[in-house]
Design brief:
Strand order of the largest sheet: 1-2-3
Order of helices and strands: HEEHHE
CATH class: Alpha Beta
Subcellular location: Cytoplasm
Radius of gyration: 12 Å
Distance between the termini: 17 Å
Number of strands: 3
CATH architecture: 2-Layer Sandwich
Largest sheet: 3 strands, mixed
Number of domains: 1
Shape: globular
Structural class: alpha+beta
CATH topology: GMP Synthetase, Chain A, domain 3
Helix content: 25-40%
Protein name: RNA-binding protein KhpA
Keywords: Cell shape, Cell wall biogenesis/degradation, Chaperone, Cytoplasm, RNA-binding
Number of helices: 3
InterPro entries: KH_dom-like_a/b (IPR015946), KH_sf_prok-type (IPR009019), KhpA (IPR020627)
Strand content: 25-35%
Function: A probable RNA chaperone. Forms a complex with KhpB which binds to cellular RNA and controls its expression. Plays a role in peptidoglycan (PG) homeostasis and cell length regulation.
């Protein structure tokens, strides 16, 4: 999942070298923390949060086989 979010984010931003994804694993969930350059924050979030919602939807669809809840946080 971490690689999936990283690939999607790098395709969206102007500074792909600044994209960083951290994975925080707990018993019940996995949190993917996406960090991008401040200039690229708007591109990752999108108008009215539509791009961020699309990223979360893709991750949720890809994580069907996982038995944990996967969250994507944009920092």
């Amino acid at each position: 999942m971490k690689e999936l979010v990283e690939i999607i984010a790098k395709a969206l931003v102007d500074h792909p070298e600044d994209v960083e994804v951290n994975e925080v694993v707990t018993e019940q969930s996995i949190t993917l923390q996406l960090k991008v350059a401040s200039d690229d924050m708007g591109k990752v979030i999108g108008k009215q949060g539509r791009t961020a919602k699309a990223i979360r939807t893709v991750v949720k669809a890809a994580s069907v086989k996982e038995e944990k809840k996967i969250l994507v946080e944009i920092i």
